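Bench notes, afternoon.
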Amino acid sequence: MARKIWAYAKDVHEQFIYNKQLEKLEIFYIWDVLKLKQQHPEAYSGLKFYSTEFDEINRQELIPTEYGFFRYQSDEVDKNRQESIYHSTAMLVLQEMSEINFTIDNDNYNFRFSKFLVEPCLKFQHFDKNEEKYYPDLIGYFGEDCELYDKWNGCLAIEVVFTSPCYQKKINSFEKNHIPIIEVSISKKLKLDTEFCGEINFTVDEVKKYYHALKKIFAKKVYGKIRSDPVSKKYHQNKINNLEILYQQTLLELENQQLKQHSNSQLYEQYAKLNQEYKKLQANMSNLNQMMSDMQQREWILNTRLNHYLNMGFWQRLKFLLQIPIE
């Protein structure tokens, strides 16, 4: 049995009721419908309730029950379409959120959604002309402020998992057709067993309480798992462009380093030449100092001899001069 907690509705003119302010079909919650049935039976009798598929042709008439959920009017359809309260509630809460903070592994992603498609029919055509049909729980379109926008073309499928995860054939088909899948599992914590009385015995008030409790949990963060992770052509091209820019920057840095090395090499050669000149100047200075010292010594000897000569008498000077060899 399907247990849906929300529905669309047709009026007495067989037209789906549209919310002009929100620009989408009006959502009828099971608790509001049961309240309407009790308090305003005439208004209630003028409504027919339908399932919420995006494609109108796939919508089936629903009947509200006192147990807090809608069931399909057709017993055969209701028997074949299994859906839990947990699954239906999670789908409703997610598609009402304009912003979802996903935690995937250890990474956080912020998605701002412009719209959701509820259970749209996706048809994938293969080369062998065989056609596959899938009805993902939600298709969401998100903005460029999310880092996954280019990679996923701003679109993803959200699958709510209560019992069985997505099967591999579906994952492969979505990935081949460039549609990512984020899987949101209903964990034991999200079942809220202490606040909600399970799948069989429950009341409409408990369902409403669970809906609001789940909204508070999902408002903080939603734990998800990426099952289909395609990469768009634009994303690949951006990666290539970024690598080319990085290559050009690296090449420019290497050229600058080579110029610096060449400049440093020239400076080293100039330093070596100046160092050689300095050593030559030091050697010349040493020779000049030695010559200066020799000249000072010779000058001292000459001055000594001159003083000695000046202190001689006439006959001593004559004798002294006669002893000096003529050079």
